[in-house]
Amino acid sequence: MKTIIVSIFIFFGCIFSNLQAQSYKINKQNYDYRMYVPQPGDPNKPIIMGLASYFMPELGQMISGEVGRGLAFLGGTYAAFGIGYGLTATSRNEYGNRNDAQIWTGLGIMIGAVGLYIWSIVDAVKVAKVNNMYFQDLRGNLSLVKVELNPFIDTNNYLGQTNASAGLSLKVTF
Question: Measured between alpha carbons, how far is 24 from 134 in angstroms, rounded to an integer?
Answer without folding.
Answer: 9
